[in-house]
Fold this protein.
Amino acid sequence: MKILQVLTSHDQLGNTGRKTGFWLEEGAAPYFVFRDAGVDVTLASPKGGQPPIDPKSDLPENQTPAQVRFKKDTEAIKAFANTVKLADVKAADFDTVFYPGGHGPMWDLAEDPVSIALLESFYSSGKPIALVCHAPGVLRHVKYKGEPLVKGKHVTGFTNGEEEAVGLTKVVPFLVEDELLRLGAIFEKTANWQPFSITDGHLVTGQNPASSTVTAQALMKLVTSAVPA
């Protein structure tokens, strides 16, 4: 089985002068879920190479077992430092795709025609797609049969309450919860910062960084039921 993991290349938090990128837990935890299952993982980003890690995600208070493991794992560090360019990957070469969040994807991947086409290609060919935290916002321009892909779908993602808690409601280009609702999705959520993921057909979404592992596990369950051994 082959999984594509797509990371952001964007490192500016709006016009705050602060840095952003992908949230380390959301990159590392799913990567280890996949690798430990013996899955072939390819990492990609719009610019290729080392994607920016959100500095906040690596603060002492935000450490998780997956992050601690990541920093001691030379194979993982090397893999993340050498992502392939998103424009060079094809959905046909993979069984599924996983998008970690962090604030970065809201600026680049959400508006990237290559990412939009890639997600449409995966989904249209019946392959599952999974996105966690801010990454469900990347679906804002993704269509299926001429309609927003998320229309009528049960989804979750980083909530308005969580965005408010981190004080970035006025900084982000859009609010994930509001945008998914605007597109006609059925948005569900649990308490702030608690693990929560939803599978609706071939679409898997997770609410926040704590949902990274359960979202990756839900995707694995979906793919292994769909892909012959």
About this structure: The chain has seven helices and eleven strands. The longest strand covers residues 40-45.
